[in-house]
Amino acid sequence: MHTYTKKELMALITGKLRRNFGRDVDEATSLHMFKACALVLRDIMSERQMQTQDRTTRSHARQVHYLSLEFLMGRSLMKNAYNLGVLEPLKEAIEGLGFSAPELFESEPDAGLGNGGLGRLAACYLDSMTTLDIPATGYSICYELGIFKQKIVDGQQVELPDNWLGLGDAWLIPKMDEVEEVRFGGRVEDVWDEHGHHSIRHTGYDSVLAVPKDMEIAGYGTEHGNVLRLWDSKSPQPVDMSLFSRGEYLKAVERQALAESISKILYPEDNHYEGKSLRLKQQYFFVSATIQSIVRKHRAEYGTLRNFHLKHVIQINDTHPTLVIPELMRILLDEEGYGWDEAWNIVTHTVAYTNHTVLAEALERWPQQLVIDLLPRIWQIIVEISNRYQAELTTYFHGDMSKVERMAIIWGGDVRMANLCICACFAVNGVSALHSDILKREVFHDAYLRTPGKFKNVTNGIDHRRWLSECNPQLDALIKECCGGDRYLLDPDALSGLEKYKDDSAVLERLDAIKQANKKAFASYVARESGIILNTDAVFDVQVKRLHEYKRQLLNVLHIIYEYQHLKEDPNFMIVPKVYLFGAKAAPGYYVAKRIIHLINSLAATINADPICKDKLQVVFLENYRVSLAEKLMPASELSEQISTAGKEASGTGNMKFMMNGAVTIGTLDGANVEMHQVLGDENIFLFGLKAHEVSELKAKGYHSYEYYMHNNDLRAVVDALAQGFQDGVSYNDLAKRLLFGDGCPADEYLLLADFDSYRNAQKKAADTYLDRKKWNQMSLMNVARSGIFAADRSIRDYARDIWDVPVRDLSKL
């Protein structure tokens, strides 16, 4: 593996500046410099990827295709340099050319092609698949505007466009010779020739071109290279010149605008027909282009699709890419002329499904009329799949239509995407042990009884190289000293070597000093960005994740109100000073989530302005939470809030990042917290709250939140304060009523009041423990030492062994 020197990189960067931008170094701006560095790394990665492609073609290896509507890649310059082993010489080269390396890295926009955990997971998995030498390609949409930039104005979320492509397109390689055509609407007719052969004629459709833009993916410590293929939508006729020449300018570009709207923005609002239509178009556009591309290359290599399922596995990340099932059927039936049974055999041995949610509202359903209008041929195929499946189910369940109804693909005017996945995919996996168990026991129980072998578990994992080594260099250095060098970077289980230092006061004190340094660094960043001065002598208690009611940011807020009320009564109430840090984006149409953001900011303004709270209690909402902000925050965090209602969070990955950086978790037994508790034991985590089965039992017998309110004076005072509001004069009576009486939903649907006392006690225990510095640092050390199991490399090995049936790189010989 060639290692590049500072001198070589300076020459390569200078060459890029001259050839691509017509600039000498002394004329170049930081924008030119960033793009030149990106292009240099891109060339190295392209060379590796082409060699990987040649090896894969020669060996006829089985390939993995990972389909996800989200890939939250974050920044790439530093990450790619790190994986390629050129980070230090690149920094030296940038400085040697008269630029600041930290400023250049910081100038890169996040590639925000995702919404949260789903997209971040997909990005981590691409890194691990490449590091483990699996021939794999990720597929998504090249959104012009990714997840919105969040601005807080008067305490409320305002969404601004996030145009990442200005600098981000330096990583993208357009492949104009691999454009695919995707068809919408039109009419479908059956055609029979004189020999009685049947075919399909599709007419009157609208075409959209899918232009692939490839992002190279570098693995760590390997020559292997993979690709993330992002599809950009274009009109086949950019401008109608006849309309333009008649002066009808807007109409002339209308078709172009409609086509390009498909890749304009991540997740358009779907609370109206146009938004639903655009979202369904996005999903079909992305899977149709993807499967056509895979098929085209396969046919060129093998001349037949009869062995397609032996050479490819398609993993669909949540239900968004489900239409790949009928689309592959369409190609096999209509373009290849295969019979139904042969086509179905290929499809059902190719596609596997990862489920990410137990929430009924998140299991996608599409109005059947929308599918008929937009995708007439796909509708016909779904109907055929549905009819055959329903007939099988009716026989299997001896005519018990209540079970058939739950499992049906088309029912009540809806097309149910999760049920289509359950029917057609050869494997269905959850993303934590608890989540997979709930899928089998509740969500897909009847399907599990019918095909138990189909159901698997692959607990999520994170890219530990990015989320520990790269973002927490001081902790990385300590681990390398204690665990025999950098072995843990390719063998995360080696982190367990830290355990033997559990009683070593020098190591514990150094761990404490690293945390303090990281807190100060993060506080400096916050001060620069917002002018807010964080109290670094306080415990950093952090809850950062998507804003959703089941994640219970509101429970955290209720407890802060409780602490504030008692602090006002007794200035010595807080035995440990606390800084509560929140970061969250609410979906633009999610009214309650936006109200909770407003509430957090109202409460923060009141507490931070009250002299009695000075150096004791502080609340800060971190604006525009994103990957690059998380990379700064995780190393500084001390108490990790993972407080979702038990049975609601599929897994979580933020919980793993906090753990790996030495934060101690306060949480419920939900998602991957369950497995974290298994490896940590009771003594290294602060557990509270009802367990998943207790939640079900309480709801079954009738949960009355009002009773908790009436019988607990502290809780009543908190909810009353919520209803009254804070110093900005905004009342949150709507949220209080939602907790006590419901609002078109059950009162306190996520059991905040039921878990309040238990949460309060766990917070008290955490504060008491924090005072015992040795004990806290031991807990922190054990969290790092036992986090190796939550590395994405382990997750990908599980997929490769249990679902994909592909070999992985043997790291034991390194």
TrEMBL record:
PROSITE patterns named in the record: PHOSPHORYLASE (PS00102)
Entry cofactors: pyridoxal 5'-phosphate
Domain of life of the source: Bacteria
Catalyzed reactions per annotation: [(1->4)-alpha-D-glucosyl](n) + phosphate = [(1->4)-alpha-D-glucosyl](n-1) + alpha-D-glucose 1-phosphate
InterPro entries membership: Glycg_phsphrylas (IPR011833), Glyco_trans_35 (IPR000811), Pyridoxal_P_attach_site (IPR035090)
The protein's enzyme class: transferase
Key words, A-Z: Carbohydrate metabolism, Glycosyltransferase, Pyridoxal phosphate, Transferase
EC number(s) stated in the UniProt entry for this protein: 2.4.1.1
Family annotation (PANTHER family): GLYCOGEN PHOSPHORYLASE, GLYCOGEN PHOSPHORYLASE, LIVER FORM
Function: Allosteric enzyme that catalyzes the rate-limiting step in glycogen catabolism, the phosphorolytic cleavage of glycogen to produce glucose-1-phosphate, and plays a central role in maintaining cellular and organismal glucose homeostasis. Phosphorylase is an important allosteric enzyme in carbohydrate metabolism. Enzymes from different sources differ in their regulatory mechanisms and in their natural substrates. However, all known phosphorylases share catalytic and structural properties.
UniProt family annotation: Belongs to the glycogen phosphorylase family.
The protein, known as: Alpha-1,4 glucan phosphorylase
Organism: Pseudoflavonifractor hominis
